[in-house]
Write a structure and sequence with these properties.
It is built from eight helices and ten strands. By secondary structure, it is an alpha/beta fold. α3 runs parallel beside α5. The radius of gyration is 18 Å and the shape is globular.
Amino acid sequence: MSSFIVARELRKTYRVGKVDVPALRGISLSVEKGEFVTIVGPSGSGKSTLFYMLGGLTRPDSGSVIIDGVDFAALSDGERTRLRKSKIGFVFQKFNLLPTLSARSNIEIASDIAGVKPDSEFQKQITEMLGIAQRLNHRPSELSGGEQQRVALARALINRPAIVLADEPTGNLDSKSSGIVLEMLRRSNKDLGQTVLMITHNPEAAEYGDRIIHMRDGQIVAPEENPQWTPHHPAAAEHLQS
């Protein structure tokens, strides 16, 4: 049986002034359905470039990305957009919330864009798990950084995507908010069967994954298994008890 996500020999070089800067140097990896994979590495290692390629947001110079048997390279721009809408939820470090909308509307806009009806019961469930159910009528400027990131996570999960891509989702958060976000990602992986790929520079956050992939200088340098996963934030785990 083929893997759910397959990247083959991905290469990408950016032009900075008069200098070519290689971002990816022939990356290949595969992810099984329902895996939680964390990708770690220093700044400039190519993590974010890989993230954007796996999500179909950036084209490689060469190589391919195959999602559930579908090759991104074989799709038109419109088809690639539809695939992202139907299968992938994104969580970014900078939240990317619309400032004029309430938290509720920022979550529901993902359903509007995908052309599906918001599942109010599921929205209630995840916002309660994330501790933001009482903050849904507030705009982003009225929320803390941790609350904003939890709204962004709820937005990524609301359509039950098969894949969740999280780029440094705890990078701007305190330890309590980080724990809540990480526990929710793990719960979406275990309870909803979502395949999660998370980029992080935080070794403790990386241990939430089943498998850790290390990157350096645009290449994978070591994969690791992490079968004995345990929560590192007991307070967050308690917060998410249903």
